[in-house]
């Protein structure tokens, strides 16, 4: 696939907050230039530098803009849950403004780590170096791979990365092109018809794969939103990309759930009948039947969210409005058939 430009991409933080929330480091990218040279800014950036691992990445689910606790063993780095991408965006802007070589060197270590982590087939694992767990799979879960591709796209084209050498900018574009090829190859085909994607795919065969005990092989109504909205921002999509988008959009239309709200009341999330409610989509659908599926930590598949344990029932995004973002992007897409 030829390298293609991408239209400006705005992360869907508000509508997709359950899957895509900005990390503390990512939110600081919006600060004005003078913040980066202020004492507060310099101290914050020092904290970000201190959290970087020896591989060049950052851990997840910690505020890397705060000090590293003195007695704490630093967690491993990852691409999961927005980790690493936000820190690199912040450091790229910091170096552009301040020219402090520490920010440049830390950015390059993380950037090169991302390039090294990409599989030859174009996918990215959740962690690198690889281990023998599920996080070696090509990971769309929580937008992990899509976040990396957006970062690399921006590194090749946007002003905050203009200082980056031409070789790395070219490598970034090439990595995005390989990633797009991988996405097309991962799209799940059922009875000869393209549908959407699993949250993770085998790194060799690209077949849908199971992750944690409650994340079964499935079609993902959550993660596929990020993939499709990304593809619809390609400036010059190939026929393969157009076909993938058309099929994915059609799947969302046929898979929507109407007549229900999914909301929390008295500490319990549940579906509540409401004929006026906006459409919902399940996080996971059974590939063979396209029925919504749910699972607790026991690994047993259920077809009713109320049949799984309360901890997982109330601690995971089982339903969302992801298809609305897909439909909105499709309405504006100039390449639809």
Automatic annotation (TrEMBL):
Lineage, opening ranks: Bacteria, Pseudomonadati, Planctomycetota, Planctomycetia, Pirellulales
GO molecular function, one term: lyase activity
NCBIfam families per UniProt: pec_lyase
Pfam families linked: Pec_lyase
Keyword check for Signal: yes
Entry keyword annotation includes Signal: yes
Gene3D superfamilies found in the cross-reference section: 1.50.10.20
Signal peptide range: 1-21
Natural source organism: Blastopirellula marina
Record-given protein name: Pectate lyase
Keywords: Lyase, Signal
């Amino acid at each position: 696939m030829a390298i293609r430009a991408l239209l400006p991409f705005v992360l869907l933080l508000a509508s997709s907050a359950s899957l895509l929330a900005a990390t503390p480091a990512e939110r600081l990218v919006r600060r004005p230039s003078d913040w980066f040279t202020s004492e507060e800014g310099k101290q914050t950036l020092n904290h970000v530098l201190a959290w970087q691992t020896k591989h060049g990445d950052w851990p997840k689910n910690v505020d890397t803009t705060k000090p590293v606790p003195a007695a704490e063993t630093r967690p491993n780095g990852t691409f999961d849950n927005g980790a690493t991408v936000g820190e690199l965006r912040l450091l790229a802007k910091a170096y552009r403004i301040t020219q402090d070589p520490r920010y440049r060197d830390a950015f390059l270590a993380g950037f090169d780590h991302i390039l090294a982590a990409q599989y030859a087939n174009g996918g990215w694992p959740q962690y690198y170096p690889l281990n023998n767990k599920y996080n070696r799979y090509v990971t769309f879960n929580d937008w992990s791979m899509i976040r990396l591709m957006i970062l690399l796209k921006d590194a090749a084209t946007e002003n905050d990365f203009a200082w980056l050498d031409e070789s790395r900018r070219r490598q970034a574009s090439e990595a995005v092109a390989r990633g797009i090829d991988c996405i097309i190859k991962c799209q799940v085909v059922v009875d000869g018809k393209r549908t959407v994607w699993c949250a993770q795919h085998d790194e060799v065969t690209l077949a849908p794969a199971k992750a944690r005990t409650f994340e079964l092989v499935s079609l993902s109504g959550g993660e596929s939103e990020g993939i499709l909205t990304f593809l619809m921002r390609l400036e010059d999509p190939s026929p393969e990309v157009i076909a993938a988008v058309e099929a994915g959009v059609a799947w969302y239309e046929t898979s929507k759930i109407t007549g229900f709200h999914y909301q929390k009341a008295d500490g319990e999330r549940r579906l509540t009948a409401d004929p006026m409610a906006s459409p919902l989509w399940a996080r996971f659908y059974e590939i063979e039947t396209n029925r919504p599926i749910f699972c607790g930590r026991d690994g047993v598949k259920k077809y009713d969210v109320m049949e799984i344990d309360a901890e997982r029932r109330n601690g995971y995004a089982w339903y969302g409005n992801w298809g609305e973002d897909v439909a909105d992007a499709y309405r504006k897409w100039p390449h639809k058939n």
